[in-house]
Design brief:
Elements (H helix, E strand, L loop, with lengths): L2 H24 L13 H7 L8 H5 L3 H8 L4 E2 L4 E2 L2 H5 L32 H9 L14 H5 L8 E2 L2 E4 L1 H24 L6 H4 L6 H19 L1 H16 L26 H22 L25 H17 L2 E5 L10 E5 L3 H21 L7 H21 L2
Helix pairs in contact: 8-13, 10-11
Length: 408
């Protein structure tokens, strides 16, 4: 055998022996016991005890979420149900990366060098406890995710720290505000006397305008009691916009709405209208049948001011004052400052109302400040000489030519 072949074989054999020895020394014996990793690492990681800090630790920096959690359904220690903060966000203390797994107590503590998890896919987190499974207790809230909310996230309708459904409360608040709006409009329009000659000489519009409003009102009424027909009519539009539509409705008995899934409620406009009509007629009959038919007349309530001028009657601001008192201090941070003169003084009383719009302050005020700042700085351009104006025009032309030359 030639020398160069013998040397090459000896070199390959030496490399093979070195590789086997290196693997025997450096590679753990449990490697590939369960897969492409150390089998002993499973037990080591299992011994790594999380360093939980408790809810009071979270309360020091996150008072608002803690308040929602402490009064919510996730904090019921009397019945043995307490889902603490670190169940969803992870332990507040971590393992020291430079130490063994068992030395968890030497690791960082949130927020120092340890950022906790904020679940993005709430469907995956919430369904760990709330997906319907046969073995789970009946008193625990359980849903079928696909039928309950399709592909939507749980936080669309639920507050994760206090998971009560706030959609119903929002709808109730919207309905109450709409009712207050209509009361205000009706009161301003029909309750009270005109304050100006134009209002005193007001009259009904022409018949065509009344008919047009009547047609629109009739369409709204039909859409409420026969919604299935309108859903079928709008199906091509929704199909073109979102590539999906509601099931076909017109073939359903009693013209009920076909629910999207088994867990969703249906709606029958005819039955609701029949219930409202029958209950209203029954109430009217009971009132006229059982109530007294005697008339009692008396002076109108003047609220301590017998002056009957239209100036003393309720205005649009008067009707809106209850809403302003309820939401003004929270939404607009309204403050009412009343200054009453001393007894015997002829000085007038003063009422000062201070409002602050958070949306304006957060969204529009910074933009307005920037525009005002730039306009003040650029105001000097109005007082330049003709030479400086020509210099600016020349400089802009040069910049445009350079931009065109550099354009690919």
């Amino acid at each position: 055998m030639p020398k160069h072949i013998r040397r090459l074989l000896l070199l390959i054999a030496a490399f093979a022996v070195l590789a086997v020895a290196t693997r025997f020394i450096l590679v753990d014996k449990s490697f590939y016991q369960f897969g492409h990793y150390r089998g002993a690492a499973v037990a080591e990681i299992a011994h790594d005890k999380p360093k939980y800090q408790g809810t009071e630790f979270c309360r020091s920096c996150h008072a608002a979420p803690y308040a929602a959690w402490s009064t919510g359904v996730h904090n019921r220690p009397l019945i043995g149900k307490t889902v603490k903060c670190e169940v969803c966000h992870g332990a507040g203390g971590g393992r020291d990366a430079e130490q063994d797994y068992v030395n968890a107590t030497t690791g960082p503590i949130h927020p120092a060098n340890l950022k906790l998890t904020v679940p993005r896919d709430t469907r995956a987190v919430c369904t760990l406890c709330h997906e319907r499974i046969v073995g789970r207790p009946v008193q625990q809230a359980q849903v079928i995710p696909r039928d309950h909310a399709a592909d939507e996230q749980c936080t669309l309708c639920h507050n994760p720290h206090s998971p009560r459904t706030f959609v119903g409360a929002t709808l109730a608040l919207s309905a109450a505000l709409a009712a207050a709006c209509f009361v205000k409009v009706f009161g301003v329009s029909f309750l009270g006397r005109p304050r100006s000659p134009q209002a005193a000489n007001a009259h009904e519009v022409e018949r065509s305008s009344v008919v047009a409003m009547g047609v629109l009102a009739a369409l709204c009424f039909l859409a409420g009691i026969l919604p299935g027909l309108f859903i079928d009519a709008l199906a091509p539009v929704t199909q073109a916009l979102v590539n999906d539509s509601m099931p076909h409705q017109s073939s359903i008995a009693w013209l009920s709405i076909v629910p999207i899934a088994e867990s969703r409620s249906s709606y029958n406009g005819l039955l609701v209208f029949a219930f409202i009509l029958s209950s209203g007629m029954l109430a009217a009959y009971a009132i006229h049948r059982l109530a007294s038919d005697k008339w009692r007349k008396g002076p109108a309530w003047d609220c301590g001011f017998p002056n009957a001028d239209p100036v003393t009657q309720y205005t649009a601001s008067s009707f809106a004052q209850p809403i302003r008192r309820v939401f003004g201090s929270v939404v607009f941070q309204a403050r009412e400052i009343g200054e009453m003169p001393l007894p015997g003084s002829m000085a007038p009383a003063h009422l000062t109302v201070r409002l602050r719009d958070p949306i304006w302050d957060a969204c529009y005020a910074p933009v307005a400040g920037i525009v005002s700042f730039l306009s003040e700085r650029l105001n000097v351009l109005q007082f330049l000489t003709i030479r400086r104006y020509l210099s600016l025009v020349f400089a802009l032309l040069v910049l445009l030519l350079l931009a065109l030359a550099a354009w690919p």
